Amino acid sequence: MNVLRVNRLLLGFGVVCSLATGASLLSGCGNGSGPGAVALDTPTSGSIRISVDATFEPILKSHVDTFEKIYTAAKIRTAYKPEQDVMRDLLNDSVRAVVVARQLTDEERGYFDRLKIVPRTAHVATDGLAVLVNPANPDTMLTMGQLRDIFTGRKTQWSQVSGKAGKLGAISVVFDQNRSSTARYVQDSVTRGAALAKEVFASESNPKLIEYVASHPNAIGVIGVNWISDMDDAQAQSFRRQVRVVGVSRSESPASADDYVQPYQAYLATKAYPLRRNVYIVSREARAGLGTGFASFVAGNQGQLIFLKAGLMPATGQVRLIQANP
């Protein structure tokens, strides 16, 4: 049993999924053992390419490294890209599996239907989007309504958001990359379909986003929380020391500071943190090859524990929340 203390909340998590159980999520297709079939790889050996949403790069590197250490005959060649490019790779058959922050659209499912392919999708974790500001910014508590106004350009000056950060001047909004899942999520779930402000821009990468926010007092950025959530990762904690993480409130009229929450693991589990999204692994393999094997690993016991350690909420497990005494 793993127990995590987060702002007086305890999260107990017992993983109940095994590799075999994870495999059942994505198998059920042909195994390549029919007449004339040649298996170039197996669930634990061979070489394949996969594409991963760049917002999940730190956590998926941990999965790939661990998988290859356990299965030394396997090689996972991983490309980290913006979400739109990742899905293009899957549709073009450039890769057999992808890790993304959404399920397939009806149009994408129709495309696979026409090819007589049945893609397998598994929810493997729940992620949070962290809102970052510069350490010089005293305004580290924002409501969803305030974020909506900032991202759509209704509020362009920090003085319009609150009196605390009025001296910082114009708000500078930065995302990680063009065609990224964070920008899509913000438009889907924060601005509710409204266009982002013209002044919003994309940095070259997630580390570049952190660097920009750290060096610009008026900046605000959005990043996948796994870049800063692993307490045992030196780079993640170095990134976190350079910025401040904003507490976000669902309420338009928060009664107290307790209404604002950060993307801690417990608040992802209880759904108290509003900027949550699911992480999916999608395979288009027509047989149980290495793509299926890796997907089973990510969805299974060891893969779920890696998500837990990194501060995300694993998809499979028994959760127990306990109020700790102060």
Outline the structure in words.
By secondary structure, the chain is an alpha/beta fold. Helix 11 (290-299) packs across helix 12. The radius of gyration is 21 Å and the shape is globular. The chain has helices spanning 19-26, 57-70, 83-91, 106-114, 144-152, 158-161, 181-190, 206-215, 234-242, 265-269, 290-299, 301-310, and strands at 2-6, 9-14, 46-53, 74-81, 97-100, 120-133, 141-143, 172-175, 201-202, 219-224, 244-245, 247-249, 276-283, 313-314, 318-323. Residues 1-38 have low confidence and may be disordered. It starts with a strand and ends with a strand. The longest helix has 14 residues, at 57-70.
Strand count: 15
Report how far the terminal alpha carbons are from each other. Answer: 22 Å
Content-based structural category: alpha/beta
What is the 3D form?
globular
What about the largest sheet? 10 strands, mixed
Estimated helix fraction: 25-40%
Tally of contiguous helical segments: 12
Radius of gyration: 21 Å
Mean pLDDT metric: 87
Uncertain ranges: 1-38
Beta content comes to: 15-25%
Succession of helices and strands? EEHEHEHEHEEHHEHEHEHEEHEHHEE
